[in-house]
Write a structure and sequence with these properties.
It is a single chain. By secondary structure, the protein is an alpha+beta fold. It folds into two domains: about 1-225, Rossmann fold (3-Layer(aba) Sandwich), CATH 3.40.50.300; about 230-360, RNA polymerase II/Efflux pump adaptor protein, barrel-sandwich hybrid domain (OB fold (Dihydrolipoamide Acetyltransferase, E2P), Beta Barrel), CATH 2.40.50.100. It has nine helices and 21 strands. The strands form five sheets. A six-stranded mixed β-sheet has the order 7-8-9-3-10-11, with helices on both faces. Strands 14-13-12-15-21 form a five-stranded antiparallel β-sheet, with no helix packed on it. A five-stranded antiparallel β-sheet has the order 16-20-17-18-19. A hairpin with a 2-residue loop joins β10 (about 200-205) and β11 (about 205-210). α2 crosses α3, α2 packs parallel to α4 and α3 packs across α4. It is globular, with a radius of gyration of 25 Å. It starts with a strand and ends with a strand. The relative contact order is 0.11. The model is unreliable at about 285-290 (pLDDT under 50).
Length: about 350
């Protein structure tokens, strides 16, 4: 797709979006409500034509083709199964419309039911299946005609958390087996990080960043991406050079950045990147031996919240001003260092994990 624009009256939903998706790739459009991700998906599907711009699929210009002439299958949030048809009839619907031979239809339906693990449900109706089973049938129906592109519009958002986790693994495995190019719209970061080959992070109708899950999580290109994907600590600071900053009167080393010395910036570090060292990692005023941790800060534990696989700790320190620092510490670290509410410890803010972005206007 090249330079896609979409306007609704005076509102601009897409602003010159350009993106190339490789064959067999699983791509997630990720962003908050109103960012343009669903508008972009609908433009690809031909359900809501772009105002201007070009969309090509397998070298063919499909920019102005109706949905019926585009090579894709689609699964909506609501599944949209036909309630009056059996499961096997739902899957066969597209094949029958394409006037495929009866024997071919039966074989394809049997194959897909086995693929999604629902062979024994063929004669049932949608209302007799669970939400997760209905979603798998919707996927099987979309895949029945062997489309060149699979479009998923928040397919798991109507399901409970445990079923979502199970189904996202199944969908990814199915996509890998079939090798079908897939675009999924979601606002769920965990869903995108666990399923996508690449994530397209959108905001206000533009693409903020395109990258692998690791890239957008570990190396966000903008403050919006850092803030939207995962938890972050953010501090107003001042750049002192390309790898140093001043925060509440304290000088810290940070990852290299492009901000000029003296610029007002935002320093960002994720709670999971903060490393607890206990209260004796280094004595105040002692010389720095080789291998001393970066940015050691003495903190007091103000509050602890148990979240199953880790403890979320709210930390305070005069060196950080009035801002609280949130650290996510493993159960083993909390036990080993005897971290407790009102206790004292030193934490490390690793240089390569302290990211710096220009301060938003």
């Amino acid at each position: 797709m090249d330079q896609l624009w979409k306007t609704f009256g005076d509102f601009v939903a897409l602003k010159g979006v350009s993106l190339e998706i490789k064959e067999g790739e699983f791509v997630c459009f990720l962003g908050p409500s109103g960012c343009g991700k669903t508008t972009l998906l609908r433009a690809v599907a031909g359900l809501d034509l772009q105002t201007r711009g070009t969309i090509r699929q397998a070298g063919r210009d499909i920019s102005n083709l109706p949905p019926s002439r585009r090579d894709y299958g689609i699964v909506f949030q609501s599944y949209a199964l036909f309630p009056n048809l059996t499961i096997e009839k739902n899957i066969a619907f597209g094949l029958e419309n394409a006037r495929r031979p009866k024997a071919e239809i039966q074989a394809r339906v049997k194959e897909l039911l086995a693929l999604v693990g629902l062979s024994e449900q063929a004669k049932k109706y949608p209302a007799q299946l669970s939400g997760g089973q209905q979603q798998r049938i919707a996927l099987a129906r979309a895949m029945a005609v062997s489309p060149g592109l699979l479009l998923l519009d928040e397919p798991l958002s109507a399901l409970d958390a445990k079923v979502r986790v199970h189904l996202r693994h199944e969908i990814k495995e199915l996509q890998r087996k079939l090798g079908v190019t897939t675009i999924m719209v979601t606002h769920d970061q965990e869903e995108a990080l666990s399923m996508a080959d690449r994530i397209v992070v959108m905001n206000h109708g533009v693409i903020e960043q395109v990258g692998t899950p690791t890239e957008v999580y570990r190396h966000p290109s903008t403050l919006f991406v850092a803030d939207f994907i995962g938890e972050t600590n953010q501090f107003a600071a001042r750049a002192l050079g390309n790898d140093r900053l001043a925060l509440a009167g304290t000088e810290l080393v940070c990852a290299p950045h492009i901000c000029a010395a003296g610029d007002e910036v935002m320093a960002v570090i994720r709670p999971v990147d903060i490393i607890p060292h206990g209260d004796g990692a280094r004595s105040p005023g002692a010389p720095d031996p080789i291998g001393t941790p970066d940015n050691l800060v003495e903190v007091t534990v103000e509050e602890m919240e148990f979240l199953g696989s880790f403890w979320r700790c709210r930390l305070v320190s005069p060196r950080l001003g009035e801002k609280r620092l949130i650290g996510d510490f493993s159960l083993n670290a909390v036990r080993r260092l005897r971290i407790e509410t009102s206790g004292h410890l030193q934490v490390e803010l690793p240089q390569n994990r302290v990211l710096v972005f220009p301060k938003a206007a």
